[in-house]
Amino acid sequence: MSEIYIVGVGMTPFGRYLDRPIKDMTRDVITDALADAGASTGDIEAAWFSNAAQAILEGQGSIPGEIALRNMGIQEIPVTNVENACASASTALDMAATWLQAGRGGIALAIGAEKMFHEDRAKMFSVFDGGWDVHDVDAATDRLLAMGQGLDDPDGEEDTGQRSVFMDVYAALAKFHMKSFGTTQAQIAAVAAKNHVHSQHNPLSQYRDPMTVDEVMAARKVSWPLTLPMCSPISDGAAAAILCREEELDRFDRARAVKICATALRSGSDRKPEEVERHITHLAARDAYARAGLGPEDMDVAEVHDATAFAEIQQVENLSFCGFGEGGPLTESGATSLGGRIPVNPSGGLESKGHPVGATGLAQIYELTTQLRGEAKGRQVDGARFAIAENGGGFHGIEEAVACVTILGRD
Known catalytic residue: 231? Predict the structure, then answer.
């Protein structure tokens, strides 16, 4: 089976772009990825376009990829639209790599583009309403929030205003972890502070102000134990990757090519909260390590889906960088900071970089490709050879509905 390589990447700055259409972001990021690869639009044989909000916010459903790509002159090739919650972009990468491995072509494009800011805030937040079973909302809410029962805000709960219901879900999951393993709010804050420190070195990050643990703890409450700097912001942005089969690699710069060692895509299961070893991401990571012939000890850098700071604690455990329940102490030890044993989210993570849902997974791939090339400048992980990305989304039962784990490496 042919090896698959990433030969070009591009990413826009993430931020608030009310007047910048999806088409423009698509054109700009693909242009950057093509320039990075030394390729042209005519080289692309198939494309996967990731987006999760455009149909809701703009009414452009069904064929957003065909429209966005033709706008920049990419036409006639097969275009597949991908919507898979927050894991949409990593799913697009997985599908593009699978298509190439099947021998359907030699060069493919994966792109994620998302506009989430909208003048109508209620409509903007409605994007998240479909991220679980809409026929079971009350039961799903009760089931998820029940995981946090028995651990209350010591200062008293308060209404902190409009927010995605998933912030309350993440708060409940954090409380369950705190009850089960002794994780503290200060450890969750340590994740956020670490990522905000990392973000100051990322020119594409939405927020670039370093923060201390005390500043994170003192910030406005969103849903206890989560404060504002612990939560990913609404964002607009795009990211793209150009992939090729090994047989096509001589057309590009081999010295900058990054191998896709493995991808693993999973949906969740009906498990009990205590069955942490059956968590969707832990199983996906196990699959990815096996396919790559590598283990967690081989990873030099990671990008994980920190929709909240607590999620990073959960995901470093799921990726087996530590035991279950040890993610908080691992972060406090400095092991996940730049210069530590396994730097996590050197980009600043979703909390700082931003979270344009349909682009997030490929933004992780952009960061890790940059790291493995040794081109990350002030946030570079020294000697990085293998990297792992974890990207999950939606909720079904008591965990994410979908998770995708990708392992990249240098020959």
Answer: no
Going by the DSSP 8-state scheme, the letter that residue 28 receives in this structure is H
Contact 211, 196 (CB under 8 A): yes
Residue with tokens 């409605």: 126
As a whole number of angstroms, the distance between CA 366 and CA 369 comes to: 5
- Which residues, at least 6 apart from 93, have a Cβ–Cβ distance to it below 8 Å? 48, 110, 241, 243, 260, 263, 361, 362, 365, 404, 406
- pLDDT tens digits along 24-66: 999 999 999 999 999 999 999 999 999 999 999 999 999 999 9
Report the number of secondary-structure helices (H) and strands (E) in the chain. Answer: 14, 11
Q: Are 110 and 79 in contact (CB under 8 A)?
A: no
Does residue 20 sit in helix, strand or coil? coil
User: Mind listing the pLDDT tens digit for each residue in 93-112?
Assistant: 999 999 999 999 999 999 99
Confidence class for position 411, pLDDT limits 50, 70, 90: confident
CB atoms within 10 A of CB 335: 17
What pairs with residue 4 in β-bridges?
245
Of these residues, 198, 305, 355, 396, which one is catalytic?
355
The DSSP string of 76-105 is: SS-EEEE-BTBTHHHHHHHHHHHHHHTTS-
Q: Which of 86, 231, 322, 404 is catalytic?
A: 86
Alpha-carbon distance of 411 to 397, in angstroms, equals 40
Contact between residue 116 and residue 357 where contact means Cβ atoms under 8 Å apart: yes
Could you tell me which residues come within 8 angstroms of residue 296 by beta carbon, excluding any fewer than 6 positions away? 285, 289, 319, 320, 321
Task: Report helix, strand or coil for 275.
Answer: coil
pLDDT in tens, 288-308: 999 999 999 999 999 999 999
Question: Which three-class secondary structure string do you get for 112-159?
Answer: EEECCCCCCHHHHHHHHHHCCCCCCHHHHHHHHHHCCCCCCCCCCCCC
| Secondary element (H or E) of residue 8 | strand 4-11
Has 201 been annotated as catalytic? Answer: no
Global pTM reads 0.97
